[in-house]
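[job 4417] fold queue: 2 targets
>>> target A
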Amino acid sequence: MGKLLDRFSNYIGQLTHAEKHVLYYIDGHVEQAKQLSLTAMAEKNNVSTTTIIRMCHKLGLEGFSELKYILKTIDDQAIPVGENTIERYKADMNQTLDSLERKHVEEISQLIFEANRVLIVAVGLSKMIGEYFSKLLIQVNKPSSYVYESHIIDLLPNMVQPKDMVIFISSSGETKTIVQAAEKLRFKNIETIAITNSADSTLAKLVRKHISAYVQRVQFAGYDLSARSTLVVLIDILFEFFIKNYKA
């Protein structure tokens, strides 16, 4: 079993025959796979691009771009063995909290309060975080839903209504599916918010407002170990500001 199959062994049982075929091909041809685009990968394996994207999501990834990143770094060890992991997390969290401006958080929470409906868009590992945020809002009767399927995200510009708000959640802020959706919504008259781990990301530049954590991008033996817990902290803070408005 190669490094890729070893990493995703817990997910293989969830894949269809076609999706397994693609994963096995990549595992056996890592160097070639590093150079292939999504379309070229699909043609090489006689499958659709949708099959590959669906495979990536089932593997817990945000999309094909994250898979390519893993392939490029699978043999790297970017984290020194002796690094103090706890200190790194502490530094990330402290810098994130120090960077937050109360006025900015209040403005975003007020926009959530004023929206008729909140659509939360997240894929891959961020999908669970999107569901978490949506359920926080639902429990206080704020109309909300989370969107994570690629074909629904593509239809998002046709789904939104006046006074809706769309919140994008992406650790990197570079997930292709989400960035494309944000581009389509850019000129619609609705509020768009991004929650990311990168204030300089493409996504953050496409939305009307964003709130971001400061996280060191780290990986080890091909695994992306960049913290995502900061996204949950940002959501918890936003929700507390929102609920104080809601119950005022």
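>>> target B
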Amino acid sequence: MYKLQLYRNGIFFGLMMNIMVYAFFPTYYELLVPIPYLEIPFLKGIGVVVLIGSLLLTRFSQMQLKGAWRIGIDSSETHGTLVTDGIYKVSRNPIALGMLLSTVGLFLVTPNMITFSIIILVHLIFSIRILLEEEHLYKLHGEVYERYRNRTRKWI
């Protein structure tokens, strides 16, 4: 799990560097290998909407977890609350979905090979993290979690 956090931090650094170069050093933007045919104002507008929506989804999902919200897997926890209502009726991982959508939104605003690569890396890291979290939740909640998992989609 520690390595996943290191990768996540590296991706976050890459995203921040992408934003800084795009916003403050436009002459160096070419180094990020832009995709010119996607540099359309309409797509940038959609990207902004996706970014805002993804941030709202992530925050709303965190709020619905209330006291069950954790960053990472809390191995010291013996039994927590399994949240299965609200947004969690539709998706088992709405926070991960919101974060993945934020990288898609950023790609639409700044279409380049760096942001495209980050979408793939974020999806990969969250897929691994979800597998680890689901194993942990099954150990905590057993058949209750299994029934929830069978009736609720992983992403959407």
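[job 4417] complete. Note on B: The chain is about 65% helix and 0% strand.
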